Amino acid sequence: MKTFEGKVTLVTGSAMGIGLACAEAFARAGATVIMADIQKPDEQAQKLTALGYKAVAYQCDVSDVNAVKEMIDWIVSNYGRLDAAHNNAGIQTPQRPMAEITDDEFDRTVAVDLKGVWNCMKHEIEQMLKQGAGTIVNTSSQGGVTAFQGQAAYISCKHGVIGMTRTAAMDYAARNIRINAVCPGVILTPMAKELIRRNPDLEKELVRDIPAGRLGKPEEIADAVLWLCSPSASFVHGHALLVDGGFTIH
Fold it and tell me: Which one of the listed residues 53, 58, 79, 154 is annotated catalytic?
């Protein structure tokens, strides 16, 4: 279904995992998708264009507000508008108790996972106000509504993303801009696959608390993001959509 035919979309953190799956889904749905990452994802974009889709690689560090502004300006200069954005870029801090996380680790996590979303939203919204419409989805986490030991910096940011999403949604709902968040559970990304390869017992431990009895797939998050950005979700504002196999039920 070409739900996004003629639309221009942006996905940050699109070199792998959830971001890549979302970029692929937008492309298959007919959009011109700008694939942004801190390392320019040329190979990933080329694979999509070879299949006949419209994908463009762009290098951007979302923690740099000037770089983000330049990116949005470049998109508008080349494609005329920005219809949908998925602010997905993020990092994780090493897992250890809060007092053992260094100031530099905390600051870097906040710079990417929270300020990075702020930077993107600010300039995306400015453009969407000019064109009179737009949709934004921010990546939070199941950790955005709960907590996990040893991840104080990361969890703080993911809670913050939900608060930012809800408040911005209230600010701009009447201006025809919809802003929501997606909260992935444990997803079988390349990073997770590598961790499981090193520790075969890890998957059993991760699945233990997931009622669905399995890990999620990046494509399942992509389906949720596209729905939130689509006309089918036209009355959905400020929602944090959990896609976690039921983990947060209990």
Answer: 154
